[in-house]
Amino acid sequence: MADAADAAEQGQKTAGTPTTTATSALLGSVNLRSYPAFITKASLLNTISEKAEDLMRHRDVFITPAVLRSYVDLQALLHRPYSFPDIFALYARKPIPQRTADGTKYTAVSPDKINAAIDASTATRALDSAIAAHNLPLAIDILSTTFCTPAFKRAKILRQALVPIAGLAVAPFAAYTLSTQYSALQTSMDPGHATAVAFAGIMTYVAAVGTMGYVTVTTANDQMERVTWATGLPLWERWVREEERAALDRVAGAWGFQERERRGEEEGEEWEALKEFVGLRGMVLDRVELMDGME
């Protein structure tokens, strides 16, 4: 009788207590586990950044544009943009690994080839990280290894100017074909003379329209804020280097005063270094005649 009463009393005490399962016990042990004090958030981010950089520098890793973009995105998220100039230079010069029967063969590449050009969106992402870090030397180095390289200029010419140039090259043959067809349809003059007149007219029209379009594209300046081209710079070079100028314009806007009425009042070692770099690249920072109130 006494044993039965004790069992009933014990059951009443545990009736309202939650049952401990193996899963809850395991989770509880994980939550209560102590970690070394030296593992901090900063050290973890540094480790991830360093391992990613080591992976890019490994001699057997071939860096593709997609891999480079992923690396830039990762380091930008970690707020560690300081390795970008070195990695961009490595991307342009890193030997290509090739598997052979004797092992791995490394083929040297030229940094001036089109394949060595950094994609504009990747370069812009890296530049944004440098601006966010407010590191002017880093921003200049990123510009020097992306937009300022011969490979980037050649890639732009191939991707954007190849079709218009090919059209101009084919234009005389197309004009001659049309002129021949026109001479066969008319009876007012000799066919040879009619062909020559039609050919001259078509080519004059193509040359006039093409020249106007070329001048319009290469002299457009509505997008310019603080950095403009120096006087005497060829129009072709202005068009080829427009991304470089736009990037420097963004850097100047980030380091200078945001108020338009205060532009030109900036001073300091970094600002003078930026002005010098802009001048060496054939541009002008804060041209006096283009500033507000100085027209």
Report on this structure.
By secondary structure, the chain is mainly alpha-helical. It folds into three domains: 41-148; 153-218; 221-295, no CATH class. The chain contains twelve helices and four strands; from the N terminus they run αααααββααααβαααβ. It has helices spanning 2-14, 22-31, 41-57, 65-77, 84-93, 120-132, 136-144, 150-185, 191-218, 235-240, 242-255, 269-280, and strands spanning 96-100, 103-107, 227-229, 283-285. The protein has a two-stranded antiparallel ribbon with strand order 1-2. A hairpin with a 2-residue loop joins strand 1 and strand 2 (103-107). Helix 6 runs parallel beside helix 11 (242-255). The longest helix is centred in the middle third of the chain and has 36 residues, at 150-185. It is flat.
Report a brief summary of the structure.
This protein is mostly helical and 295 residues long. It has helices at 2-14, 22-31, 41-57, 65-77, 84-93, 120-132, 136-144, 150-185, 191-218, 235-240, 242-255, 269-280; strands spanning 96-100, 103-107, 227-229, 283-285.
